[in-house]
Amino acid sequence: MPVYEYKGVTSHGKQVSGVQDGEGLKAVRAKLKKDGIVVLEIHEGGERRILGSREFRFTSGRVRLGDLANATRQLATLLSSGLPLMDALTVLVEQEEAPALKSALSSVRDAVREGASLADALKANPRVFSQLYMNMVSAGEASGTLEITLDRLADFLDDQVRFRGRFAAALAYPALMTVIGVGVLFFLFAFVMPRVVGMFQDMKQQLPFITLALLWVVKFFSTLWWAILIALGGIAYYVRRYVATPAGKAWLDSRMLRLPVFGSLIRMIAISRFTRTLGTLLQSGVPTLTALDIVRSVVGNTVLADAIQKARENVREGEPIADPLRRSRLFPPVVVQMVAVGEKSGELEKMLLKISDSFDRTVETRITALMSLLEPVIILVMGLVVGFIVIAILLPILQMSTGVR
Fold it and tell me: Does pTM surpass 0.85?
């Protein structure tokens, strides 16, 4: 197995060098990356390779948020170790394995090589780098703290990845149970019930009401299934078109906030996103008005976005942030009070991040509780449906066997 010599930087910014055996350059880089080392140079024997010697063309594709967070943290580590921005981007391009992100980083590196700032270079890839990302980088470059800003940005992205992962894990089992239940019902109505219906039609006796109801349901779905599919498709198309309009989106968002159980969860998730994003932006030196304008576009709810827009206008006129938030009546009193305290103490950024952490924990607890209740509800509903079918089939058979006796 060949041995490779390397030079790199640890996650703490310390430059290291050494040797590592492996089946190839890719395997060695993977081992070093797993150990928390960002490789700068690597070569085997007398044949030396400097990372970043290849060019990549831009290709389309979706960038995962976790990959972007890792790349952001690696860039912060490289810059904090004293590496120039151009060299750091070159290393980052060679290290990245996700094709879409590699292509985006390559285009950013080319723009920086031509003289653009990092923030301006990011604007060429708005699908990869959000407005929040670009504004934080711009503030970091203006203040001379780019590596610190990138590290905060990586923390922000990591928090989003962890929250999405916990949310998906909580929904996984109920979703699986729903899919299995729908599959069982489809099997019963598609393969079992048609044979049972034929058997009942040959009977010369009065069928129970529950059996007649089952036969009607089977006949209805077997003869009009195409009309049902067309109707559902038309409704889905109309709703999607309507929700795509500003009026439809506002109507849907207002109704979502009024849902009995899930409305409070949706509100808490949006407020957590608002406070974390605003706190991160202010902490990175982004002006308050610009930060509020960015936050308005990331909360994901037009009702709250309108409230934030009105708050921005009031802040521009000299009001503190807490007052317009209180007047909107969309933000809980505890949020308004903590924002007011943060503004008076001069620690608004820290207070906003504390609000977000508290809301994230509450949302996670409530989602876990809801999912634990949803599982038995799904089982109960499936049991009732299957029990109804079984009873409807067994009743006439029992009547027939009683008549024979």
Answer: no
